[in-house]
Specification:
Number of helices: 3
Distance between the termini: 55 Å
Order of helices and strands: EEEEHHHEEEEE
Largest sheet: 3 strands, antiparallel
Radius of gyration: 20 Å
Number of domains: 2
Number of strands: 9
Strand order of the largest sheet: 1-2-3
Shape: globular
Strand content: 15-25%
Helix content: 10-25%
Amino acid sequence: MTRPYDQLHLPLAKRTCPLCGHTTMRLYRHTTYGRREPSWINYLWCGNCHAYSSSFTGAGRKMVESDPLLAEFGDRISEVFDASERLLKVLDGYWKAGKLPQMISRRTPCAVLTPRVSPHVRGTGIRGPLTAMAMRPRSCPNHGRDLRLGKSAGLSGGFE
C-alpha cells in the first residue's frame, strides 16, 4: 500500500487512501481570520471510508473563492465542525453536487489596518499606543469585508 507522504507530488484526484486504497481523496479549506493573517483549516478525507486528517496552515497570499459550508451555515458553522462524521457527510454532498473542490486564487493586499491617533494626543502630531483599540480596520473594497475580523463590513462586532 502506498504511504501518504509518497503521494504529495500527485494531484488530489490521483492520490489513494492509505487505509482503504481507493482513489477518492478530497480536500476542503475553511478560511479563519483570528490571527494576524488569514489562515486555513484544511480537511483531507477519503470519500470511501471517511478516514480524514485536519491541519491548520497560513493562507499566505491565497484565498478560497467559495465556501459552500459557510454559505449554507453562516454563523452556525462551528456546530458543523464539532461533529466530524456529520461534517464529512455534508462535505461529501457538496463534492457530489460539484461545489467542491474549491477554487484558490491570489489574495489582493487589501486587509489593511489604518492607525488612528489616540484622543489624548490629538493635535500634537504624536501617535498614541497602537493597540487593538487604537487600530481602525479598513474594509476591503474588493470584497466588502473586514478581513481582520472575517465579517462583512457594517456588521456589529469587532473594535469600534
